[in-house]
Amino acid sequence: MGGFLFQAFIYLTAAVIAVPIARRLGLGSVLGYLIAGIIIGPVIGLVGTETQDLQHFAEFGVVMMLFVVGLELEPHLLWEMRHRLLGLGGLQVLLTTSAIAGIGILLGYDWRSSLAAGLLLAISSTAIVLQTLNEKALMKSDGGQASFSVLLFQDIAVIPMLALIPLLAIPELMGNIAGQGAAIIAGEQGANTGHATFSLVDGLPSWGVALVTFGSIAAVILGGHYLSRPLFRFIAESKLREMFTAAALLLVIGISLLMTMVGLSPALGTFLAGVVLANSEYRHELESSIDPFKGLLLGLFFITVGAGMNFEVLFGDFGTIISMVLGVIAVKACVLYLLSKIFKLPKPDNLLFTLGLAQAGEFGFVLLSFCTQNYVIDEETGKILLLVVALSMLLTPALFIFYDSVISRISLLGNERDADEIDEKGTVIIAGLGRFGQVVNRMLLAHGTRAVVLDNRADVVDGLKTFGIKGFYGDATRPDLLHSAGLGDAVMIVIAIDDRERSVELVRHARRDNPKIHIIARAFDRLHVYQLYKAGADDIVREMFDSSVRAGKYALLKLGQHPFEVEKAANAFVEHDRDTLRQLASVWQDGVSVFDNPEYVDATKARNKLMDDAMKGLKTELHDSAERGWTPPPKKGRTKG
Amino acid sequence: MKKILVLFAHPAQERSQVNVELAKAAKKLSFVTLVDLYAEYPTGFIDVDLEQKRLLKHDVIIFLHPFYWYSTPPILKLWQDMVLEYGFAYGAEGTKLKNKIFFSTLSAGGPQKAYTDKGYNHFTIRQLLAPLEQTALLCGMKYLPPFVLYSALKAYDKNLIAGHVENWSNVLEALKEERLPIGPACKLETLNEAIYKPSKSNSTQSHSTKRKRA
């Protein structure tokens, strides 16, 4: 007990210190966990060999993660993914395996060992990649979806690989290392078979195996569909939160157990269950119940990867190992890049896909131990490959940072696809052709004005072409592009881009380049309005303001107010708000937080009080402005009509 | 049976004591179409086609409004500017409104005596409405004098509104049944007199004759 508490204390301390620091530094939580692991493992030696066992336990976090991913993926979305799943995923595994196996054979290794190494290195890290994609909100992007397809295929592919590896056994190795290190291997074997002590399919004929296997999958799908609802309702009615948590855990563990008993991947099983439950009304409850376990187990898993690094072997042959790591990453990246071309992933998503999946993964550990145990790979090579897998995982967050800070930035600068040649100059330029810019453009077109329209999303520009709207691809904040769009002698520029800082930059640039130009700018909020005003914009439009006022008008109408009264009230509100904006703008200071600006705070309070009073029906300036006009004279005075 | 279109315009209805009541009363009658112009066009963009179609479906057109600065609220002027198009309401081909009856029903703040050449308003209401009268004549319509409530600001305190609403309903009924003698009514200062006239013994009769144009 004391030992367990001590261990838990060390792991948790390392995580609690390292992860927030890593996130603050923009490194992401995965790298934080890995570093925490390295520190408590090989660096200061607080934890020892038990990390291996912990790692197998922590791998369950991957299973939970796939359950949660499944919950967020509705069945029809999965169906839409089928081409990518089989095409991208299948080709990735096939090509990477062949390439690595080929290199292994060329380097003089046995073909069987080379093939096995190819297989185990072809698998990427579901844990790291999905965690990072979620954290960076890239999951929904094209690159994120493609990455997910490949990862899912790999997780499924592990099962046939486990069946294949024993067939690759090298007879010479068997004699040499029989019995050697069997204890470790036995422990590791437990991981991929989920510690199952018996199997449902052992000793069955092949048709029986197929029957049981499909039966189990059908049980998961049908059970998820028909049984889960009454079960969860029954549990929910107990009004005990922990019972729901227990039920959610039971579900995941139960499915994992069933899957391992029939020889399928637990990750695949729980993923399927997640997809089946994605339409359920208990989806969010399930997700929030599983999430903390998933997060902690994954964290623990990453720590054990870091802690399990064998520094002796690493520094014993540092050069070779590092070049192998870089070699593996390079080979995998090349294959992925090729596939991104074949499957026409847009830029810069293709590079996210290329760099994101270039590492080896946690299933690599499993396959590796399985290989050494089955005499496919010798002990020494095994130790080196273990380091290669771990180090490539360790480098993944770095590749993501590289993607973030260099590639996505470069692509925003428009270097991916050359900016279109602008063949017309206009008196009006519209920067940004999203929902905002499109409306402006259509109104101008309706009045016979052809604006030069710029957008930095190639798909948007191409898509609009099909509707007969001509736009130019290119980043509107690039001075040379603006120049060729005719900024120098344009009468007006409408800045409709969806980016706070860049729109301010663009206003500044346009004002500097053409002092006479009229600038209409889209603003996010008040503070953005002040910045745009200071930068030199003439008309500043808060993107949500007018539509919100309209929604307010509908609400008042529904409450039974007379339409013209509603119109007057809305008008008074808009006037008051604009007036407030002007007053606050005069006390706003660039670079000073509004909370540290007492003048701004006081002015805001005063304006809010005015609004509050008006809402309470007290007579105020705001009330007056809505109520003036068509007011009868006082009873005793002279009348006007 | 005549069909009646009442174009109601009051830009501050929560403060209205008279006109809203008149509108409500009109709305109850099956042969009357009541259009609240400020409700239909709160932003002031009038649907000309719709308004012209409405005109075609009715025989009597009435403006119902308070008397603002000796005229109608602005939306009624806008309505005229937009709806009474050349070729529809006037011009060689513009005969769509011919022989329809037109008049205003209005509430005035000032007392009746203010609306005389000696009073502080110097003109009668009918005189002040001359633009409407001429507009109607140009469109070939039969123009009737306005149906008026004087001293409208005091009407509520003096409990005069219910009686006025009843008279208004009577006017509408009479128009529908063509009981109102159009020829003589054309010459009156206000339409109210046409309603009071039949009962010669009525005390209001002497009152109303005094109001007759000199």
> In the CATH hierarchy, what is the architecture of chain B at level 2?
3-Layer(aba) Sandwich
Can you count the beta strands of chain B?
A: 6
First-residue to last-residue Cα separation of chain A: 94 Å
CATH topology descriptor of the largest domain in chain A: Na+/H+ antiporter like fold
Q: State the domain count of chain A.
A: 3
Structure in words:
The complex is a heterodimer of chains A (641) and B (214). Chain A is mostly helical and 641 residues long. Chain A folds into 3 domains: 2-412, Na+/H+ antiporter like fold (Up-down Bundle), CATH 1.20.1530; 417-543, NAD(P)-binding Rossmann-like Domain (Rossmann fold); 545-629. Chain A contains 29 helices and 6 strands. In chain A, helix 21 links the parallel strand 1 (428-431) and strand 2 (452-455). In chain A, helix 19 runs antiparallel to helix 20. Mean pLDDT of chain A is 81; it is low at 177-197 and 637-641. Chain B is 38% helix and 14% strand. Chain B has one domain (4-186): Rossmann fold. Chain B is built from 11 helices and 6 strands. Chain B is an alpha/beta fold. In chain B, strands 1, 2, 3, 4, 5 and 6 form a 6-stranded parallel sheet that branches. Classes of the chains: A mainly alpha (641), B alpha/beta (214). The A-B interface holds A 562-567, 629-633, 635, 638-641 and B 11-15, 38-40, 42-43, 66-70, 73, 108-110, 114, 120, 153-154.
Short note summarizing the structure:
The complex is a heterodimer of chains A (641) and B (214). Chain A is globular. Helices cover 69% and strands 4% of the residues of chain A.
Keywords:
A: mainly alpha, Na+/H+ antiporter like fold, Rossmann fold, 6-stranded parallel β-sheet, 6 strands, 69% helix, globular, B: 214 residues, alpha/beta, 14% strand
List the helices and strands and how they pair.
The complex is a heterodimer of chains A (641) and B (214).
Chain A: H1 2-24, H2 28-43, H3 50-58, H4 60-71, H5 75-80, H6 82-106, H7 111-122, H8 126-135, H9 142-164, H10 171-177, H11 182-192, H12 206-237, H13 241-261, H14 266-277, H15 283-307, H16 311-316, H17 318-342, H18 349-356, H19 362-373, H20 379-412, E1 428-431, H21 435-446, E2 452-455, H22 458-466, E3 472-473, H23 479-484, E4 492-495, H24 500-513, E5 518-523, H25 526-535, E6 539-542, H26 545-558, H27 563-587, H28 598-615, H29 621-627
Parallel strand pairs in A: 1-2, 1-4, 2-3, 4-5, 5-6
Helix pairs in contact in A: 1-2, 2-15, 2-20, 3-11, 3-15, 4-14, 4-15, 6-7, 6-9, 6-17, 7-19, 8-9, 9-18, 11-19, 12-13, 12-14, 13-14, 13-15, 17-18, 17-20, 18-20, 19-20, 24-25, 26-27, 27-28, 27-29
Chain B: E1 4-8, H1 19-27, E2 32-36, H2 37-40, H3 48-56, E3 60-66, H4 74-83, E4 101-107, H5 125-128, H6 130-138, E5 142-143, E6 147-149, H7 152-155, H8 161-176, H9 182-185, H10 192-196, H11 203-210
Parallel strand pairs in B: 1-2, 1-3, 3-4, 4-5, 4-6
Helix pairs in contact in B: 1-8
